[in-house]
Amino acid sequence: DAKTTQPNSMESNEEEPVHLPCNHSTISGTDYIHWYRQLPSQGPEYVIHGLTSNVNNRMASLAIAEDRKSSTLILHRATLRDAAVYYCILRNYQGAQKLVFGQGTRLTINP
Amino acid sequence: GAGVSQTPSNKVTEKGKYVELRCDPISGHTALYWYRQSLGQGPEFLIYFQGTGAADDSGLPNDRFFAVRPEGSVSTLKIQRTERGDSAVYLCASSLSGTSFDTQYFGPGTRLTVL
Questions:
Q1: Among A10, A23, A21, which Cα is nearest to A83's?
Q2: Predicted local confidence at residue B101, as pLDDT
Q3: What letter would DSSP give residue A5?
Q4: How close does chain B come to A76, measured CA to CA in Å?
Q5: Which of A61, B36, B71, B100 is 20 to 30 A from B58 via CA?
Q6: Looking at residue B100, what is its pLDDT?
Q7: Of B70, B79, B93, B94, the residue nearest B21 (C-alpha)
Q8: Which residues of chain B are at the A interface, by a Cβ-Cβ cutoff of 8 Å?
């Protein structure tokens, strides 16, 4: 499985934008970039995914570099509820169904 | 609608005992996954079911771990002769059809403590 690298932790203030980086220099052409997050004492939940183009949904935006070797999850206005561990995961549509989690980025939101 | 549920939410047992952890997936989801999460780590894959059969059990750490899904819905993860190192949160997830594009929906987990 292709690997991803994320900072261990990040901190931001409430109502400010947050940019969570992910490096995936060994990504293959058939790997999709998925983000899940895990709120305290809960199971992970899906956030967003993309292949090449930037993606937006009600939760977040995903910006993908032109060479696809990195991506950034953007929370436009962070709330206290966004405090969680964020996981960047590569999923190959020809590959296994399992999710391969790294250690993720622990995001702290200050009031 | 109802999400993935797991019972019990907490289980404390003694070393050497047998435990069963239950997962109720979202109705209609054919794929079911078990993961294990140790403190401070990301979840680690254990086993994946497509319907009643285990399609990928490559993550089961040893033969003390076994999982079943006899009717293609509820699944039970069984751990024999528990060891202190088995202490972790056991997470269950389900998805609609099990393709690599499917979103996996996770339950809240069962926290297993082996004394």
A1: A10
A2: 78
A3: B
A4: 23
A5: B71
A6: 72
A7: B79
A8: 4, 31, 33, 35, 40-45, 48, 55-56, 59, 91, 93, 95, 98-109
